[in-house]
Amino acid sequence: MSANGWLQFAVFSAILLATVRPVGAYLCRVLEGEGTWLDPVLRPCERIIYKLCGVNATQEMSWREYAYAVLGFSAVTLLLTYLLERLQSILPWNPQHFGAVSPDLAWNTAASFTTNTNWQFYTPETTMSYLTQMVGLATHNFWSAGVGIVVAVALIRGIKRTNAPTIGNFWVDLTRTLLYVLGPACFVYTLLLVWQGAPQNLRAYVTAHPLEQASQTQTIAEGPVASQEAIKMLGTNGGGFFNANSAHPYEDPTPLANYFQILSIFIIPAGLTYALGRMTGSPGHGWAVLAAMFVLFAAGFSVAYWAESQPYKMIHGATQASTASAPGGNMEGKEVRNGIAESALFATVTTDASCGAVNGVHDSFTPLGGMVPLTNIMLGEVVFGGVGAGMYGILIFVVLSVFIAGLMVGRTPEYLGKKIESYDVKMSMLYALIFPLIILTFTAVFVLLPNIGLSAITNPGPHGFSEILYAFTSGAGNNGSAFAGLSANWWYNIAMGWDMLIGRFLMMIPVLALAGNLAQKKSIPPSPGTFPVNTPLFTVLLVGVVLILGALTFFPALSLGPILEHLLLKAGHLF
Amino acid sequence: MHSVAATTIDSGTQVLPLESQGERRPVQSVWKTAIRYTLLTALLFGIAYPLIMTLIAGAIFPHRASGSLILRNGQVIGSTLLAQSFTSDRYFHPRPSATDYSSAADFAANSATPPSGGSNLAQSNAKLAQRIQADIDKLQAENPGKPVPIDLVTESGSGLDPDISPDDADYQASRVARARGLTEDALRKLIAQHTEPRQLGILGEPRVNVLEINLALDAMTK
Which end of chain B is more exposed for a tag (fewer CB within 10 A), N or C? Predict the structure, then answer.
């Protein structure tokens, strides 16, 4: 570890916290239908979209209608991506003449991008045409990010409204998110990335004749990288244009670009905490939630940075100390320009959120360093979290915290003037239980199948178990990062597809049901027995609930994987 | 005062009353809207957005938008952002690549290695310890007594890391100096010139771009 590493973390935190208020306020304006400075250009576009799609923008939806729209839209986008992959060989913008993607892989990938997971069992630069990348995958990044944001906003509306039968209009929310937030931000962000060196073109791959041996050609994969990279990070999607994801110098060319990338993962989720406070008329609550997130984020980074800075004890004759002229530490799978600190920071942020982009190989992290991303996903990606998904995830934990506080003092739990009753707690617990259920079931099944499950792993011993556990955790959590040694086969493609779809939509429906139920409740004034949700005490309770729920559920699995691996490695045991 | 038990059992305020409120729209209108909306936004964000960005990026940053390629005598010799293989003693070597530096073979069907990526080997995997130790032993035979910087013997995440640490370059300096008949001091000076500091003073790590310093070497001794 170095002072400069900690300084990078401190500067990152300061910049992030400075963006919370302006970003949150802007999100509020967009989602409350207020005017923005982009109105002169975008307002007409918005109206045209409603007209062409037959959307009645003034008609609001009940939670069931909202859920139908979410599911219907997601199903259509899934189908489009599947068809593009299957038909890419006869469609334009395929300069490398790639054939059709196999049905199971196309299904896995379509499910992966529909659910904002962006798990990649394929090698992009040898599988996907530019058209598939642009329309099938990059556009899906916009769609799935937008869907996440609008579901979170629907839940916030549910908390805020009283005696209301509706929670907003899905198409209006989605259109405004795409046009006023994601679109303009990606426009600027793409240019920043190209400025730092990310390519943006549509031409065929270049054959280079290297300096030393011109006959041994290098093939340089090109493409519309920067435009896809922008939404990949901002929408917490994480599906790389290249196999190496953000470790690839074309995706993430400089430390500054890397900083942009990390910041852009968190910027919308962090802003949403301010939007929560402002839209519910309780700014202190937004900050209390943000504080809980920040504590968990700082803890995750500290462990990952410490673990990755440790020397590898199984070799001798190398210098592994961090100095002003060498990164030191565990450099296997990491890039020199990023070093240890920015790699640990990236890994922490990408799994705190449901992004899943990687700028280093998580599989090659130290056992404890690699446990941080895994644990972050297991906690439900509520530390800032995915765009929208993190917000509705943490709100589930907020409801549970309020409920537990109510149990402790023997009062009816209330949350911002709403009584939390049986139905609300049931929906929250449904959300909290579906997640571990699919992860642990799928992992258990695949670990028991030597020819199907175990044959796919790269690293033997407890780390192999971690690879399978990480895959299903990442899928269910819609993260998409991987212990990438796990190789695809038909069974994994199909199972992971369902893992991701259940982890997205079966968890989204209880959220919308909760939103609908809260919206139609009446508001009750706070009483002396009301547990305040804008105090440090609440922050502590929220952190406690997140950690306890995660630990109780996943500690046994973690102890069979990374914890066991750490202890054996410390004792000098290799596999 | 209500007890928690009393209120949580009460499920009278469920969402069912919502059914009767507001106009109900037929479910098929959701599909119709969804299909139109998907196609329209696919055009906007899947086609128009990347094409417009390609045009603008190409106009403002033509060199970078096309991949920071280096041309010599009309032939592309590589990209400053991507490592390429160097094995002779006359050149600085990049970090080892798990993917053969994106060679043409990486793109062949059923290639064992993808064009980019890391080794995915875990620290508890004996293969990793053996590989690193073998590389260290080989280097120490050439350069006895000098500890090897760790980035010289670890494979990068992309397999295309264009940079090495200044310590790594320094470690290789005596070999290159011998092969080219240059003094080590001249090489140290060259390394210092090509050491890119942390960006904005704090971001990332100091680094030396291997292709650029090798081009400079060729220019020096020609």
Answer: C
The Cα A171–Cα A178 span in angstroms is 10
Q: How many Cα atoms sit within 13 Å of B78 on the Cβ side?
A: 27
Q: How far is A365 from chain B (nearest CA, A)?
A: 7
Residue A535: C-alpha distances to residues A189, A531, A532, B159 (Å)? 36, 10, 7, 48
Residue B36, H or E segment: helix B27-41
Cα separation of the two ends of chain A: 28
Query: Cα-Cα-Cα-Cα dihedral of A395, A396, A400, A406, to 10°?
Result: 50
Structure tokens at B48: 């128009």
Q: Tokens standing for A217?
A: 């050609």
Long-range contacts of A535-544 (CB under 8 A, 24+ apart): A535/A284, A535/A288, A536/A288, A536/A291, A538/A288, A538/A401, A539/A288, A539/A289, A539/A291, A539/A292, A539/A295, A541/A401, A541/A404, A541/A405, A542/A288, A542/A289, A542/A292, A542/A394, A542/A397, A542/A398, A542/A401, A543/A292, A543/A295, A543/A296
Cross-chain residue pair A226–B38, CB shorter than 8 Å:
no
CB-nearest partner of A243 from B116, B198, B203: B116
Q: Which residue of B has its CA nearest to A462?
A: B124
Q: From start to end of B52-184, where are the E strands?
A: 69-72, 75-79, 148-149, 163-164
Q: What is the interface pTM, i.e. ipTM, of the complex?
A: 0.94
Beta pairing class for B75-79 and A318-319: unpaired
Tell me the two tokens of residue A105: 């892989």
Beta-carbon contacts below 8 Å between A and B: 467
Q: Is B171 on the interface with A (CB under 8 A)?
A: no
Q: What pTM was estimated for this model as a whole?
A: 0.94
pLDDT 10s digit of each residue in chain B, 222 long?
A: 343 333 333 333 344 334 444 445 555 589 999 999 999 999 999 999 999 999 999 999 999 999 999 999 889 999 999 999 999 999 999 999 999 999 988 998 788 899 999 999 999 999 999 999 999 999 998 888 889 999 999 999 999 999 999 999 999 999 999 999 999 999 999 999 999 999 999 999 999 999 999 999 999 886
Residues B136, A330: C-beta atoms closer than 8 Å: no
By Cβ distance, the residue of B124, B157, B166 closest to A247 is B157
Q: What's the alpha-carbon Rg for chain B, to the nearest Å?
A: 29
User: In degrees rounded to 5, what are phi and psi of residue A390?
Assistant: -65, -40
Residue B129 to residue A574, Cβ atoms within 8 A: yes
Structure token pair of residue A514 = 């909760």
B61: contact with A, CB 8 A cutoff? yes
Which 8-state DSSP code applies to residue B151? G
- The tokens for A554 are 């996943």
Which of A336, A407, A523, A565 has the highest number of chain B CBs within 10 A, making it the mutation to test binding with B? Answer: A336
Instruction: List all residues of chain A from 533 to 562 with a beta carbon under 8 Å from chain B.
Output: none
CB A62 within 8 A of CB A165: yes
Q: Which residue, among A91, A227, A325, would best test binding to B if mutated, counting the most B CBs under 10 Å from its CB?
A: A325
Which sign does the torsion angle of CA A477, A299, A542, A167 carry?
negative
**Per-domain residue ranges of chain B:** 28-66, 68-221
